[in-house]
Amino acid sequence: MSGPSPDRPDGDSSPEPEPGANRTGDGDGPHGGRGGGARTAVGTAEAPDRPSRAFVDLHCHTSASFDSLASPRAVVRAAAACGLTHLAITDHDRIDGALEAQACALPGLTVIVGEEIRTRDGDLIGLFLERAVPPGLSGRETVAAIRAQGGLVGIPHPFDRFRGSLLRDLAMAPLADEVDWIETWNARLVGRGNERAAEFAAGRGRPGVAVSDAHTTIEVGVAYTILDGRPATPGELLAALPGARLVPGRASYIARLVTPVAKVIQRARGRGRVPAVAVLAAGRGSKGPGIAR
Question: What is the mean pLDDT of residues 114-126?
Answer without folding.
Answer: 96
